Amino acid sequence: xxxxxxxxxxxxxxxxxxxxxxxxxxxxxxxxxxxxxxxxxxxxxxxxxxxxxxxxxxxxxxxxxxxxxxxxxxxxxxxxxxxxxxxxxxxxxxxxxxxxxxxxxxxxxxxxxxxxxxxxxxxxxxxxxxxxxxxxxxxxxxxxxxxxxxxxxxxxxxxxxxxxxxxxxxxxxxxxxxxxxxxxxxxxxxxxxxxxxxxxxxxxxxxxxxxxxxxxxxxxxxxxxxxxxxxxxxxxxxxxxxxxxxxxxxxxxxxxxxxxxxxxxxxxxxxxxxxxxxxxxxxxxxxxxxxxxxxxxxxxxxxxxxxxxxxxxxxxxxxxxxxxxxxxxxxxxxxxxxxxxxxxxxxxxxxxxxxxxxxxxxxxxxxxxxxxxxxxxxxxxxxxxxxxxxxxxxxxxxxxxxx
Length: 403
Description:
Helices cover 64% and strands 10% of the residues. α2 packs antiparallel against α3, α2 packs antiparallel against α7 (190-225) and α3 packs antiparallel against α4 (94-117). It is of the alpha+beta class. The chain has two domains: 7-223, Rhopdopsin 7-helix transmembrane proteins, CATH 1.20.1070; 237-397, 2-Layer Sandwich (Alpha-Beta Plaits).
């Protein structure tokens, strides 16, 4: 038994695609509420599916529903698709706000006129196709404004999709001027069947691209979470190691210096023992905020373990690293953490500074010298900065007094 893929059959197929993908979008949006625009895209699919249902019921329902409402629903569905994509990608297109509604306002009377006052299938085809082409161009123009931080490959795919569909409907408009006017839209020929396939192409491509972009965002978020210490918001040891590997490779190529600072809160165990771990966590967060607020944007601050933190300062020599460490030490020593109405907790920290030296076989050698400098700072009385200038130089204590 052979199946004839006529216009009505293709419309049924597009309707099924639209409903299934629309339900999928709503379910995905429910599970991932952080993404904007996905529900809007799903609503667009439902409108396209509803329009196809009305189209397929031609000759069974009133022409106003099967012609005017159905075509308007399909165009509105396309508008909601690209509006959802714009919201998802954070795109704002000023002219789209008035042009999209204008398309619907202009199309409605044209369809009504050439359906009831001067019935003309060719004119309706031309009006619908021109409107669909303009809507597709709007979608492509908006996606051209897509931020560089997002996946460009997906954006290019969507732009190509919209431009391809727009080109097809422009060709359909031109072809209708030379083609024999059909007596019945349901038998309007190959191009009308291909128009339904173009609708399926829009639904499938946009849904695939949306899920692709959402998956990329989730993957980036998970990757970032895996690199962040949940208590302090600084990087963790794994992220710090990766940053040091990159900076060490760059220093080997260019000969530029970098500095590592290791720091440790003084007498932190006493804080936990006397006030409890919840106060200890509060102290760690305060100290982490001090470190993050006093460094450059491209510097790396990481929690090394327990109350110990480490900083990577690219393009910094020993003296620059010492000045940074001293600023951090002074700021920490001046910090008072309110524990109650009349209780303030004073904290301090010790710092060890070391610079990358030509001849270091690996970045961990710098970290080892910074660790030794930190140990010396603790040994000398805490709340001070000690510098290890090179692998063969002795440790130098900062003259700042112990407080």
